[in-house]
């Protein structure tokens, strides 16, 4: 078992900066142990070297996200991106040797069948011939992050970044929301050609890598890079159909009722984020109060959430305040050698702060609960399973929302969160379907991609009306979704996980203690099994089962006093 030594404070983290020559030597030592028939030592050393590099690389990328303007953090990120394909090459070489016929039985016995299956998939995703392309892919992905982080939008005589625009996007005044969206999409229109060029290059790179590795298109390679060993594109397509059949009609009904309640002549895009007639509930207060209230909330809940969050706060493993130099969005990363995860976000004073915080806290808690699993491959589950841990906690904190939102708004927040979750499903599967179309037709022009998005949008989200917002109206909305650029095929994971998280919500409404037990078990298992087995062990229905969404939609409709 790997010896995890937790460091007391984030500021004390300092992992060794490797060179290419040092990596050659360290991973070469693993191969030497294998050939000297010391399999146990070889596996231990292999795991140690992977954890060491991953800890350093995660810290480098976090520091870049914390300050995208700093040339030092940018340079260090570029250096890490150059080394990562070299490490991948070492890992694939070693995995191939460990999975060879003379060793596979002993290796499988020591690491388990699931990790062995992950490795079998991994070795098909890399060849030294694509090393340069992988470096370029990482650089272009970083360019996208930097481009969006550079946005400076003036509104109400204030200059804000894209994350900081959120309060105006949810403003009770419809005219203010419209103005905010005009400002936002003006930025994307101004950068549209640059964004199209970036994506052109990424799609071309990925298609070329796939062909080099023997695949017809990028899609099967993309699935393997996501380590999906228990389902494929056909299963995902069936799930997308389930969303279109069961969820799209309910969302259309909810939005039409909102239009009637608000007495709007029509529902525009800038109205979709304004869910509550009385104004979207706001957080209970500023950062310090939210942290204090969150501690009380987690202390109230079963398990070790309270103790864990106290460690996060005391160790400074949180960066939640919005700053101009920060990258947008929110994420959770971890440092395997420290045994502690880190939460990154951009609080902006809206209800989204609570959603992002509980979401990323779910990721962090799972990673901490499974930190002592023996293999680095088990510290995180595959992403669709990981997202159950995050989205599940969003729902399981519902009973304590009186602590986190402004006075008297807890029930309104719960309604808004459920409506937002339902509305997300059609959008999420649209993002996924779009990527399947793009990689099936890699020679699409930018115009054809925009037209493809609009066609799919009309299928999954027929209510979308952009009014005079010309750029999204012509199909440019997808360019604001960073996963499409940086993490191809990573978006369906949120929708698959949401199907499962909402099942935890159903269970919690009947038996809160049972729901928390299932959640704790799921977190503790980490990535020790594939997605479909993890959810089966937790007593959840697979999203790929026919009608998996039907009961959730029925319960949600009843909760919201709607009929489909």
From TrEMBL:
Cofactor(s) the protein needs: Zn(2+)
Keyword field: Hydrolase, Metal-binding, Metalloprotease, Protease, Zinc
SUPFAM superfamilies (UniProt xref): Metalloproteases ('zincins'), catalytic domain
One GO BP: proteolysis
Sequence ranges assigned to domain Peptidase M3A/M3B catalytic in this UniProt record: 170-273, 311-545
PANTHER family registered for this protein in UniProt: OLIGOENDOPEPTIDASE F, PROTEASE M3 THIMET OLIGOPEPTIDASE-RELATED
Name of this protein: M3 family oligoendopeptidase
Organism classification: Bacteria, Pseudomonadati, Pseudomonadota, Alphaproteobacteria, Acetobacterales
């Amino acid at each position: 078992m790997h010896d995890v030594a937790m460091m007391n404070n984030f500021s004390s983290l300092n992992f060794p900066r490797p060179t290419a020559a040092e990596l050659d030597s360290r991973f070469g030592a693993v191969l030497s142990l294998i050939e000297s028939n010391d399999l146990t030592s070889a596996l231990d050393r292999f795991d140690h070297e992977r954890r060491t590099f991953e800890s350093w690389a995660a810290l480098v990328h976090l520091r870049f996200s914390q300050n995208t303007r700093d040339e030092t953090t940018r340079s260090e990120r570029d250096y890490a991106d150059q080394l990562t394909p070299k490490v991948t090459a070492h890992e694939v070489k070693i995995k191939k040797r460990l999975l060879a016929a003379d060793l596979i039985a002993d290796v499988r016995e020591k690491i388990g069948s699931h990790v062995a299956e992950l490795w079998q998939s991994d070795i098909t995703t890399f060849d030294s011939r694509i090393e340069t392309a992988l470096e370029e892919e990482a650089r272009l992905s970083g360019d996208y992050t930097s481009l969006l982080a550079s946005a400076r939008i003036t509104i109400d005589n204030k200059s804000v970044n894209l994350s900081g625009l959120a309060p105006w996007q949810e403003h009770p005044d419809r005219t203010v929301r419209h103005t905010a969206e005009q400002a936002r999409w003006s930025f994307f229109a101004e950068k549209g050609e640059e964004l199209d060029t970036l994506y052109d290059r990424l799609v071309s790179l990925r298609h070329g890598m796939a062909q080099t590795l023997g695949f017809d298109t990028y899609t099967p390679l993309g699935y393997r890079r996501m380590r999906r060993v228990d389902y494929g594109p056909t299963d995902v397509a069936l799930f997308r159909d389930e969303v279109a059949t069961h969820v799209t009609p309910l969302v259309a009904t909810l939005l039409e009722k909102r239009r009637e309640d608000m007495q709007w002549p029509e529902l525009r895009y800038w109205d979709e984020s304004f869910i509550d007639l009385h104004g979207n509930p706001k957080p209970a207060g500023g950062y310090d109060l939210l942290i204090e209230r969150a501690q009380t909330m987690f202390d109230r809940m079963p398990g070790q959430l309270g103790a864990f969050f106290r460690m996060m706060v005391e160790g400074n493993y949180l960066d939640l305040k919005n700053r101009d130099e920060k990258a947008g969005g929110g994420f959770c990363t971890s440092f395997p050698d420290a045994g502690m995860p880190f939460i990154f976000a951009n609080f902006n004073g809206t209800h989204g702060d609570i959603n992002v915080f509980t979401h990323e806290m779910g990721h962090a808690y799972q990673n901490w609960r499974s930190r002592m699993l023996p293999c680095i491959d088990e510290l995180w589950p595959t992403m669709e399973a990981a997202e159950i841990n995050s989205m599940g906690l969003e729902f399981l904190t519902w009973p304590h929302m009186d602590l986190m939102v402004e006075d008297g708004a807890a029930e309104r927040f719960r309604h808004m969160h459920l409506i937002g979750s339902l509305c997300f499903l059609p959008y999420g599967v649209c993002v996924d379907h779009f990527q399947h179309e793009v990689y099936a037709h890699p020679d699409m022009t930018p115009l054809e991609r925009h037209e493809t998005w609009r066609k799919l949008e009309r299928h999954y989200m027929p209510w979308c009306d952009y009014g005079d917002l010309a750029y999204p109206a012509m199909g440019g909305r997808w360019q604001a979704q960073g996963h499409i650029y940086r993490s191809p095929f990573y978006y369906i994971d949120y929708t698959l996980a949401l199907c499962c998280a909402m099942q935890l919500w159903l269970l919690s409404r009947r038996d809160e203690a049972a729901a928390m037990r299932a959640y704790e078990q799921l977190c503790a298992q980490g990535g020790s099994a594939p997605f479909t087995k993890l959810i089966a062990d937790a007593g959840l229905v697979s999203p790929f089962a026919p009608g998996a969404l039907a009961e959730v939609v029925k319960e949600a409709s009843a909760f919201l006093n709607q009929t489909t």
